[in-house]
């Protein structure tokens, strides 16, 4: 009799869990962006939130939890209940944090369930408007000549601009003076004010300033030239062979989130990436959505693993770590 009671209880629990998964979502979903509002990652998150809200029938709320290069917000999601109501939208820093932080309290590879890739955002190498170089070749020559007299801004340890700057110094075989800021906004403000020399940042943040001439643009960090910035050469064609950095973004749930919920979120994300407004807005910013095949849990999990392996030697070679 006791055994039958236990079986009945287990079946009731399973039935209730299955029903909860099939009814998901029944309340608003919070997407944690681990950076301040107004930055490139925040822009991407708010773009996809609206069509995902329509698809899921519940409000997708963006919450900015900045600090520690994105690790504070990521940790919050890693330790959240795996019920699909707390998600993480992070950029390439999700991969590089595995090597950058010696005392990371979570595992980027093990503590998250991938939902899907969102977009690859190209990077541009820009300078203050009154910087003397007029071409990427002149910029490279100036960097190699002046070295630590050159100031290179970034949005903080672990930011994409920081990673791009490390790769640039490694590729050119020189060290400049890096100037970390608490976010992309302050870094761009000082570039616009001619307080620092150069910055490598996402097109979502630089395209408008390039168009108005408020900054000087030298190159893009993609394999091919961009349709939105056709006059800018790639670093590869400028002589820095193999130089490529893209600020990819992905959507994650905590590890252990039931597969039916992950699949429902992935379907909503895929729909958002086909939304004409999302496509048009990303195009304005020099970016585009990933393919439908890439906006899947399996694709993101593999891409994350590959990126962790790619950036580990770059970070170790630079010897730059954060506690």
From TrEMBL:
The entry sums up its family as follows: Belongs to the UPF0065 (bug) family.
> Per its UniProt record, what Pfam families does this chain match?
TctC (PF03401)
SUPFAM superfamilies from the xrefs?
Answer: Periplasmic binding protein-like II (SSF53850)
The UniProt keyword set, sorted, is: Signal
Descriptive protein name: ABC transporter substrate-binding protein
Signal sequence range: 1-20
Q: Does the keyword Hydrolase apply?
A: no
Can you name the source organism?
A: Skermanella aerolata
| Membrane-spanning segments | none
Q: PANTHER family from the xrefs?
A: BLR1237 PROTEIN, TRICARBOXYLATE-BINDING PROTEIN
Keyword Signal annotated: yes
């Amino acid at each position: 009799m006791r055994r039958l009671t236990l079986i009945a209880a287990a079946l009731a629990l399973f039935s209730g869990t299955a029903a909860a998964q099939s009814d998901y979502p029944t309340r608003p979903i919070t997407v944690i962006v681990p950076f301040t509002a107004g930055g490139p990652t925040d822009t991407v998150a708010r773009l996809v939130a609206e069509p995902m809200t329509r698809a899921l029938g519940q409000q997708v709320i963006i919450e900015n939890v900045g600090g520690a290069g994105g690790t504070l917000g990521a940790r919050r999601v890693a330790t959240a209940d795996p019920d699909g109501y707390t998600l993480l939208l992070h950029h390439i820093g999700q991969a590089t944090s595995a090597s950058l932080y010696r005392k990371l309290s979570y595992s980027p590879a093990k503590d998250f369930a991938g939902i899907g890739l969102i977009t690859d955002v190209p990077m541009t190498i820009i300078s203050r408007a009154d910087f003397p170089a007029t071409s990427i070749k002149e910029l490279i020559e100036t960097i190699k000549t002046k070295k630590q007299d050159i100031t290179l801004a970034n949005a903080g340890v672990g930011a994409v601009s920081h990673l791009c700057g490390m790769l640039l110094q490694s590729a050119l075989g020189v060290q400049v003076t890096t100037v970390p800021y608490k976010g992309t906004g302050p870094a761009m403000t000082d570039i616009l004010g001619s307080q620092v020399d150069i910055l490598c940042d996402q097109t979502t943040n630089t395209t408008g300033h390039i168009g108005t001439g408020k900054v000087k643009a030298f190159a893009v960090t993609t394999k091919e030239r961009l349709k939105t910035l056709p006059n800018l050469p790639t670093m590869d064609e400028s002589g820095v062979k193999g130089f490529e950095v893209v600020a990819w973004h992905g959507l994650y749930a905590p590890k252990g989130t039931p597969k039916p919920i992950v699949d429902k979120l992935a379907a909503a994300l895929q729909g958002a990436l086909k939304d004409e407004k999302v496509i048009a807005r990303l195009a304005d910013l020099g970016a585009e959505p990933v393919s439908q095949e890439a906006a899947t849990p399996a694709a993101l999990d593999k891409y994350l693993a590959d990126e962790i392996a790619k950036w580990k030697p770059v970070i170790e070679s630079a010897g730059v770590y954060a506690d």
